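Per reviewer request, we include the raw input and output of the structure prediction for the construct analysed in the revised manuscript.
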Amino acid sequence: MSGWDSYRTVHGAELRAAAREFTVHGWPVIEESPTELRLVTGVTLDVLEVPAVIGRGVCAQLRAVDMVVPVAGTPTGSWWYPVTAGAVLPADLLATEGIVLHTAGATVLAPPSQVPDGWVHWRVSPALTGYRVPSADLIVSAAAGSARWRSDRERHPGAQRPAAAVAAGMRS
């Protein structure tokens, strides 16, 4: 057996094991191809996909309140969070580039899917949370906070202290 065939056999076994694990915990999946596994949204869960920079902000906010939720990363620079089904994005997130709420039967590549650019992988495994899907309101609120913080930083790069403090010659 060539190295490539051996690799495909092992990866196929990983995909089947992941599909079984998701199914056992009520996460609906479709095995799309020998290299892809997809979660189906809309009934048990939805998926909020955000750019990695916003995802890091979401995780920082959750860490600050000692919460751990499943997070997947993609090789294209986005992170996604499984959330309770039925969420709606607020207007400010609808207007934010790269934020997508996958729902109503949409499918999302799930770990350990392989795509041309690399692997979809768990940044925080759902096994660490007992496969509990966090509240959509919690994750959407954290994403909105992270997006606001990011846009404030872009409008005022390097702003760390009030202008009055700088004018008065104060140092931090």
